[in-house]
Structures are given as C-alpha cells and as structure tokens.
Amino acid sequence: MIPLSINEVCKEFPDGTRALNGVSFTINPGEGTVLLGSNGSGKTTLLRCINGLETATSGQIYVDHIDVIEAKRRHARKALKRVRLQTGMVFQKFHLINNLGVLQNVLFGSLGRTQNPMKMFSIGAAKEERMRAMACLDRVGLADLAKRRADTLSGGQRQRVAIARVLMQDPQIVLADEPIASLDPKSGREVMDLLWEIVRERNLTVVCALHQLKIAQEYGDRLIGLRCGNVVMDTPADRIDADQLSHLYDDDQSQSVPAVPLEVTP
Q1: In this predicted structure, what is the pLDDT of residue 73?
Q2: What is the mean pLDDT of residues 60-89?
Q3: What's the CA gap between 63 and 152, in Å, rounded?
Q4: What is the three-class DSSP state of 232?
Q5: Given this chain, do its domains 1-24+40-90 and 93-172+179-201 carry the same CATH topology?
Q6: 20 touches 42 (CB < 8 A)
Q7: Which of 38, 105, 198, 211 has its CA 20 to 30 A from that of 242?
C-alpha cells in the first residue's frame, strides 16, 4: 500500500482565483476519506492536483513518495506516469467514449501499461487483456452489456462502466469526484455500495468528494471539510454531527476562513 500526503498545497488560477489555500493532510493506506464542501470550496481542484490533471501553485503532494507538483514542474514523464498508474479516477460525468462499446471503454483502463496504442482497442487487445476487462465488467454486474455502445446505457450503468475501467487500471488509490451527483437517489446508492465494496475488498485508499452529508457519514471513515480552499474540518465520520457539517454550506463563501478544525463532539 502506498501513502498519500498533502502539505501546504495552494492553487491559484491565472485570473487570480485562489482555489486552494495551504491544504494539508495525510491519508493512511486503505482509508476511506470523504471531502465535503460547497461548490467552489476546492474539492475538485484538489483531486485534480493529486493526480496531476491540474498543477498546484505551491506545496507538496506525495503519491508513492513522488512529489506530484515537482514532477509536473520538471515535466518528469516517468514519475507522472507512475503516479497516474497508482491513482484511478471516477468522474461525475463518467468520461466514457460514447460511440465505442462498453468493453472498449474498460480496456482503456490499461492505457498506462501498454506501449502499443492498438492494444487499447478490443480488436487489437491480447486475449488476456480482454479477459481481464470482462472480469472487471462482471464485477460491476455488466458483463452482459460488453458489446453495447456506451451512449445506450443509463447513468448508473455508465458509472459502473467507469468503475470497471478503474478496476482495469488496478490502482492503489481511487479518487472519486462527485460520483453520484448525476444519478437519481436509487442509482446513486447502488453506485456508492459498489464502489465501497470494491475498495474494501481490495484494501484501496479512496478520496471521494461528495455533497450528500448523510451518505458521507455512512460511507466515509474520515470527513475532511473544505471552505474557501481551506481545511476547516478533519475528523472521524462517527464523531461529527449535522450542525457541524452545516457550517460548510453557509451562504457566504466570499471570505477566507482560518484553516483550523471545527470542534468535534466526542
């Protein structure tokens, strides 16, 4: 298992917007952490900085002892590839290729392991890779839809395909950015059940951004609250109540707040 450590991470966009303001915390291997906060609090930006999709302005982000921020600055391709192999991402909008089949989309999870692009396509993929992709689809309950086009699936099915693609990647850390925000409550609950079952059975580390407070408390081992790019809460999920959580969603998000934990109820 690999550690994930974030130290004084700041992110400022070219227009002067400061999305992250000295964020620091360490995630233990196998821990299920939920990021909470309103829109604009910095959750998505932080997740994208962890796997290098965004470049943080300053600080350190260590994945498998590699400083992602420094690797991005130096254009260290081998180091970044190692980080991205270790960090699977589940997106709110699925990020499937709609005009390709379900099996094909899952095969793209092996992108980081192949030197031959044709091996990412089912027609050129080795039998072993196709079998692995089918096993991943079977794990999420969609093996019978392997030949269907991705754009013919329901939202819940599409997110299951996205989870199967992450399984195909075989990461140690799963980053999930609002994975149920586009789904109805029933489908959302099914996706969360599936995602958490998989990370538990494989003892993966998961960092999941959510808005749904009840679901966050049910699934997370640990809750980290962000407000205006600051960490304002970091506590075990079973030591927090609704009143404390509600502070994260106050209407006024225009002013910076100190990066100190809220008081926790024993």
Answers
A1: 87
A2: 91
A3: 36
A4: strand
A5: yes
A6: yes
A7: 198
Report the CATH architecture of 93-172+179-201. Answer: 3-Layer(aba) Sandwich (3.40)
Query: What is the separation of C-alpha 120 from the centre of its chain, rounded to a whole number of angstroms?
Result: 22
**Burial label, 159 (beta-carbon count in 10 A; 0-12, 13-18, 19+):** buried
Superfamily of domain 1-24+40-90: P-loop containing nucleotide triphosphate hydrolases (3.40.50.300)
- CB proximity list for 172: less than 8 A, separation 6 or greater: 1, 2, 29, 64, 86, 87, 204, 205
Domain ranges within the chain, ordered by starting residue:
1-24+40-90, 93-172+179-201
Which phi and psi (to 5°) does residue 116 adopt? -110, 110
pLDDT digits (tens, 9 = 90+) for 92-110: 889 999 999 999 999 999 8
List beta partners, residue 4.
27, 63
Q: What pLDDT sits at residue 10? A: 97
Amino acid at 258: P
Place of tokens 């996205």: 162
pLDDT value, residue 258? 36
